[in-house]
Amino acid sequence: MDSEKLNKKLHSKEFYPKVEIQDFPICGKSCYQEVRRRPWVNAQTVEAFSRLIA
């Protein structure tokens, strides 16, 4: 998060749907990671934001 957003009052109550990512095999077995992102809301301006997964 940006440093200016860290100084504001933020809250989050929910998650986006999970995303499954296939990673490099470990010891010959498939490796999957489940990632859940969270939208953050500025309590004063009601502006929502989150980071993108690239």
Structural overview:
By secondary structure, this protein is mainly beta. It is 7% helix and 41% strand. It has 1 helix and 5 strands, in the order αβββββ. A 3-stranded antiparallel beta sheet has the order 1-4-5, with no helix packed on it. A hairpin with a 2-residue loop joins β2 and β3 (29-35). The longest helix has 4 residues, at 3-6. It is elongated, with a radius of gyration of 16 Å. The mean pLDDT is 80.
Could you spell the SSE succession in H and E letters? Answer: HEEEEE
**Helix run count:** 1
Q: Which stretches are poorly predicted, pLDDT < 50 over at least 5 residues?
A: none
Number of E-state strands: 5
Bin the helical content.
under 10%
Query: Class by helix and strand content?
Result: mainly beta
Large-scale geometry: elongated
Main sheet? 3 strands, antiparallel
Adjacency order of strands in the biggest sheet: 1-4-5
What gyration radius follows from the Cα positions, in whole Å?
A: 16 Å
| Proportion of strand residues | 35-45%
Mean pLDDT equals 80
What secondary-structure arrangement, pairings included, does this model have?
Layout: H1 3-6, E1 10-11, E2 19-26, E3 29-35, E4 40-42, E5 48-49
Antiparallel strand pairs: 1-4, 2-3, 4-5
